[in-house]
């Protein structure tokens, strides 16, 4: 058997210091998550992989209380400013209520298990919790 | 090179709401025939046609032609999210500006009654973790890495504005919905015409904080159609047709230019602001010249940011602008006197022509109980997420 633990998405790096990585355009430094064809800012095609700060500030959020089947609610979805790079994530380990989650709050990356698949492989997801 | 002036010659929208006895082609044909009649012309005089139905099959334009007139003209089937109707209109305008013809028909139609939550898909996690898609996700990301649903996405758009400038509270957003629901009571074609109190709105079912159900656009059925004519052709038509024609003094379509974060949370601001600048320049008017605005209040949280994006207020001043009462129908610059998408309803592809109809109605002095007296210049704005911004400035005939 190969790896028994996999990240939820390929831009989450697991290990002792879990963090996100972005594709950074070598020409204009625009950063993107996920597979790229070219840069949306300058159309450059050369990228380097850069680590993203694990702490940030909550710049926007919503508390989703109504969702299609299979998406458990409620949860807090947010946009986190991680040292100048915006990250989309859930806010976790805090009640999803407007009195517990606030604009401008400091958060840090945290991971949790999504369980195991039929082959015993465990998936690890990320979110941001109050710092 | 001077290009042709463009006018709306005829325009119509169906009643928005539930039409269980009609399909999309029935609704589109009804609006198209009524727009032609309103303009005093027939399909035989149309030189181009563009139509859209976002959740329909491919060739809605030809399907409509098969019911109301197969004349062999070029037919464009357009799709541009919630800006589909505006895109159909603009496609028709471009053909006339290009000199290919002097009259054209644009149609938008949608059947969405009971469609539920848009933008999100039900999630069934696989039994084996295999990386899929651009993020190599082993299970779908919606709900685990933020939200894909529209109420949540636009909630974040409004909250982001609040983070930047302050003052954007749950109550403030609810008050915007209160205004639009109050406006809808005067619009017999709106899907919902019930006035709602602030308490009712704030205590309605929460969908995605701070948007409750009555702060979300209403899924419904509806169609709208417009007949567009060149200025030189209009001069050959009757005085009555010339008097009722509405000048399209700006027709703009933008997509979202790259900005940091725009692929993380859709940026509906930059492309709207660019469209507004282009529209004011093209029309030779400023925000202070507008008598009414129909803007894309797909959610109450969206209306706030567009006050700013369309430069109806100073930068960062949307909260104070709304609190001044300016955007109520008796205010300095009425916004969404139709009731907006929150109560008039939002049959996606029809919206970008229905808002033009609303503005034309006032500029022609034909808006009945909800007439904005003396209206001479109006603006119609739509945003299709992804994103596309359609913006039109319309002016009363000089005749």
Strand content of chain A: over 45%
Based on CA atoms alone, the radius of gyration of chain A comes out at: 16 Å
Give the largest interface pair and sizes: A-B, 51 and 52 residues
User: Roughly how many Å apart are the termini of chain B?
Assistant: 26 Å
Number of strand segments of chain B: 11
Element order of chain B: H for helix, E for strand: EHEHEHEHHHEEEHHEHEHHHHEE
Order of the strands making up the biggest sheet of chain A:
1-10-9-6-7-8
What is the count of DSSP helices of chain B, taking H or I runs of 4+ residues? Answer: 13
Identify the quaternary structure here.
heterodimer
The termini of chain A sit apart by: 37 Å
For the report, how would you describe the main beta sheet of chain A? 6 strands, mixed
- Sum up the overall morphology of chain B in one term: globular
Structural class of chain B: alpha/beta
Account of the protein in words:
The complex is a heterodimer of chains A (131) and B (399). Chain A starts with a strand and ends with a strand. Chain A contains no helices and 10 strands. Chain A has strands spanning 5-7, 12-13, 19-25, 31-32, 47-51, 55-64, 75-82, 85-91, 106-116, 122-130. Chain A has 131 residues and is mainly beta. In chain A, strands 1-10-9-6-7-8 form a 6-stranded mixed β-sheet, with no helix packed on it. In chain A, strands 2, 3, 4 and 5 form a 4-stranded antiparallel β-sheet that branches. In chain A, a hairpin with a 5-residue loop joins strand 3 and strand 4 (31-32). Chain B has 399 residues and is α/β, with parallel strands linked by helices. Chain B is built from 13 helices and 11 strands. Chain B has helices at 24-39, 60-68, 84-97, 150-165, 170-184, 198-202, 231-234, 239-244, 270-283, 300-309, 318-323, 340-343, 348-363, and strands at 6-13, 48-52, 75-77, 103-111, 206-209, 211-212, 221-230, 246-255, 292-294, 377-384, 388-395. Chains A and B meet through strand 4, strand 6, strand 7, strand 8 and strand 10 of A and helix 4 and strand 5 of B. Strand 6 of chain A pairs antiparallel with strand 5 (206-209) of chain B.
């Amino acid at each position: 058997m190969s790896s028994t633990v996999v990240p939820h998405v390929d831009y989450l790096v697991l290990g002792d210091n879990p963090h996100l990585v972005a594709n950074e355009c070598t020409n204009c430094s625009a950063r993107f998550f996920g597979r790229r064809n070219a840069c949306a800012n300058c159309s450059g095609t050369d990228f380097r992989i850069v680590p993203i700060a694990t702490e940030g500030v909550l710049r926007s959020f919503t508390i989703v209380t109504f969702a299609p089947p299979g998406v458990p609610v409620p949860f807090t979805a947010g946009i986190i400013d991680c040292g100048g790079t915006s990250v989309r994530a859930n806010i976790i380990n805090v009640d999803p209520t407007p009195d517990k989650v606030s604009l401008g709050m400091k958060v840090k990356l945290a991971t949790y298990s999504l369980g195991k698949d039929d082959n015993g492989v465990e998936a690890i997801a990320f979110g941001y919790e109050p710092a | 090179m001077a290009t042709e002036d463009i006018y709306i010659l005829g325009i119509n929208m169906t009643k928005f709401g539930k039409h269980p006895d009609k399909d999309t082609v029935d609704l589109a044909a009804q609006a198209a025939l009524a727009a032609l009649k309103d303009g005093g012309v027939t399909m035989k005089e149309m030189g181009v046609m563009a139509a859209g139905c976002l959740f329909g099959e491919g060739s809605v334009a030809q399907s409509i032609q098969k019911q109301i007139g197969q004349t062999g003209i070029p037919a464009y089937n357009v799709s541009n999210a919630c800006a589909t109707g505006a895109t159909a209109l603009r496609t028709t305008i471009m053909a006339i500006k290009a000199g290919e013809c002097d009259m054209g028909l644009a149609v938008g139609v949608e059947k969405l009654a009971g469609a539920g939550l848009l933008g999100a898909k039900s999630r069934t996690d696989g039994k084996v973790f295999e990386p899929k898609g651009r993020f190599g996700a082993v299970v779908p990301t919606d709900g685990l890495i933020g939200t894909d649903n529209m109420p949540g996405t636009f909630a974040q758009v409004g909250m982001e504005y609040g983070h930047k400038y302050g003052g954007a509270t749950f109550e403030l957003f609810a008050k915007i919905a209160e205004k639009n629901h109050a406006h809808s009571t005067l619009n017999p074609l709106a899907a919902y015409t019930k006035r709602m109190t602030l308490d009712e709105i704030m205590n309605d079912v929460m969908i995605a904080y701070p948007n409750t159900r009555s702060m979300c656009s209403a899924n419904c059925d509806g169609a709208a159609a417009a007949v567009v004519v060149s200025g030189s052709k209009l001069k050959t038509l009757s005085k009555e047709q010339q008097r009722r024609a509405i000048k399209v003094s700006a027709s703009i379509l933008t997509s979202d230019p790259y900005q940091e974060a725009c692929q993380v949370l859709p940026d509906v601001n930059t492309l709207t602001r660019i469209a507004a600048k282009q529209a004011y320049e093209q029309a030779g008017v400023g925000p202070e010249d507008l008598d009414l605005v129909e803007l894309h209040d797909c959610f109450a949280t969206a209306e706030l940011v567009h006050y700013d994006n369309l430069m109806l207020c100073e930068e960062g001043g949307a909260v104070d602008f709304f609190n001044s009462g300016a955007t109520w129908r008796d205010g300095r610059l009425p916004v969404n006197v139709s009731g907006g998408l929150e109560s008039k309803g939002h049959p996606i592809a029809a919206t970008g022509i229905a808002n033009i109809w609303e503005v034309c109605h006032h500029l022609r002095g034909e808006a009945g109980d909800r007439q904005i007296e003396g209206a001479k210049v109006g603006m119609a704005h739509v945003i299709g997420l992804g994103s596309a911004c359609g913006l039109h400035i319309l002016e009363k005939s000089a005749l």
